[in-house]
Amino acid sequence: MQLQPKILIYGYGNPGRQDDGLGSVFVDLLKKWLDSKSIENVELENDYQLNIEDALTISEKDLVVFVDASIENIDDYCLTRVEAEDSKIEFSMHAVSASFILDMSNQLYDKDPETYLLHIKGYEWDYKEELTNKATINLNKALDFIKKRILDPLSFKDHVIEIME
After folding, report:
1. Total domain count, the chain
2. In 3-state terms, what secondary structure has residue 156?
């Protein structure tokens, strides 16, 4: 019997800023599905932003998927590979990137989990605690996509795209 990889799905964003909350809502909905399927090799995290301390969290996983709202030129959602970015620790860091967290995991713990970013297209960013209808449609498509990948973790690599500027 093959061991299941330890997977972390980490949604982030501000639910009080409309579609910026896509990552948080994603994690909440995915939790219900994971519980219904009794899937135990997937851990979920949720925060307003990534923090330096998250390097330890990802270092303990085989596969990590960060989930965030996107204003990029994408259709509904897309999956990109996160590559470690040379990190220089500042005295005070307000926000850090997924690539910075991966690099910190490499530097501090000598761990390099397979890491992705799931971008979900958002449209509105006002101070309001609700997703737009179009973002909700994108969210559901992205959820269906990730559910299939969780059931077949080797398939993540086959679905990575590059974001066009």
Report:
1. 1
2. helix
Interatomic CA distance for residues 29 and 73, integer angstroms:
25
Residue 143 has pLDDT above 60, yes or no: yes
36 belongs to a structural domain: yes
Q: What is the pLDDT of residues 32-51, one digit of tens each?
A: 999 999 999 999 999 999 99
| Token couple for 144 | 């269906």
Sequence-ordered list of residues with C-beta below 8 angstroms from that of 2, at least 6 positions apart, any chain: none
Tokens coding 95: 């926000």
Distance CA 112, CA 98 (A): 12
> Three-class SS of residue 148?
helix
Letter for the amino acid at 76?
D
Is the separation of the CB atoms in 76 and 35 below 8 Å?
no
At 34, which CATH number?
Answer: 3.40.50.1450
What would the two tokens of residue 122 be? 């958002």
Domain that holds residue 153: 7-159
> Which residue bears the tokens 């997977």?
7
Q: Would you list the DSSP string of 22-56?
A: HHHHHHHHHHHHHHHHT--SEEEEEESS--TTHHH
pTM > 0.85: yes or no: yes
